[in-house]
Amino acid sequence: METKKSMFLCILVSFIFICCCYVSSVTAALSFDFYAASCPNAELMIRNTVSSASSNDPSVPGKLLRLVFHDCFVEGCDASLMLQGNNTEQSDPANRSVGGFSVIESAKRLLEIFCPGTVSCADIIALAARDAVEIAGGPRVQIPTGRRDGMVSLASNVRPNIIDTSFTMDEMVKLFANKGLSLLDLVILSGAHTIGSAHCNTFRSRFQQDSNGTLRLIDQTIDTNYADELMKQCPVTAQPSVTVNNDPETSMLFDNQYYRNLLAHRVLFPSDSVLMSNVNTKKMVEDFANDQQLFFVNWGAAFVKLTSVGAKTDEDGEIRSSCTATNV
To answer: What is the model's pTM?
Structure first.
């Protein structure tokens, strides 16, 4: 048994190493000065668009951060999630609550005026999410650009490639490894839940409806007082559109409060709580909860890796004239 276990661990480590090498090679194909000559004000125009939208709607940073996750985990960071039509990624139920599309489209329209056919929608998504984090109080991160837009968007590719809120630790580790992301990346990128909100149905599995129509807690990994708050915000009669802040303490601020919430068992999703069930991830959670700067530094490195997953470069893909459709 021990021999088989050792062999499995060796195979897993080798697989993760290969995936990480792949991500590194993709990152190398991108460039930190990609638009220096072709559209020198591209990043500024994107940032101003995100800043303006966030001023009008404080929920925008959380939406843009979720958007980049859902885009990059399916077909890679290629704006395939932006494509509209029957059976595209947007049509899958897991993506129907994803927001921020209008911000990306606004930035694209502006860039097409000043730099037509130059800046990809994929780069806009990555840069907008980067800017959203800083606007919400997080660190400034330099990310390379040069991504090209994909031409394939299928609803059937969504579910096998995104994290479900009920995932176990093993399921999340396997999916992250498939994307070339490590256990450390998993813990760091989960910190995105320090901003944003979620619909009641995404964590309803933690409760059970009694015969009299009331909810009762069945998940013992969540703080009971926090559970009571959630049941008040999300009663059985709640409309499908009702949402709850991911972070009950500093919902609009990108900080390390998520990790403090984890230690207090005050997080929304079972997939968050499982980070406390593993000795290695629990130690990471404790470190980030005690040192925000440590989280910020590590966030930068993990975010660069995330936004490089499956990125299309050179002759792979295209530069769309509109983010919602491929070029004719």
So the answer is: 0.90
- 158 Cβ neighbours under 8 A, 6+ residues apart: 74, 89, 92, 94, 95
The DSSP call for residue 132 is H
The Cα–Cα gap between 229 and 96 comes to: 26
Q: Which CATH class is domain 188-303?
A: mainly alpha
pLDDT of res. 2: 43
Return the structure tokens found at 145.
Answer: 């650009």
The annotation status of 76 as a binding-site residue, yes or no, is yes
Residue 142 CB coordination number (10 Å) = 9
Low-confidence ranges of the chain (pLDDT < 70): 1-28
The number of C-alpha atoms within 13 Å of 44 and in the hemisphere containing its C-beta is 6
Q: Is 171 annotated as a binding residue?
A: no
193 is in an annotated binding site: yes
Give the active site residue among 70, 108, 148, 206.
70
Range list of H helices, the chain:
2-29, 42-56, 60-72, 101-114, 121-135, 169-178, 183-190, 224-233, 257-263, 270-273, 279-290, 292-306
Told to judge if 70 belongs to the known catalytic residues of this protein, a careful annotator would answer: yes
Query: Domain coordinates of the chain in residue numbers?
Result: 188-303
Could you report the per-residue pLDDT of 133-184, keeping only the tens digit for each?
999 999 999 999 999 999 999 999 999 999 999 999 999 999 999 999 999 9
pLDDT at residue 214, as a whole number: 85
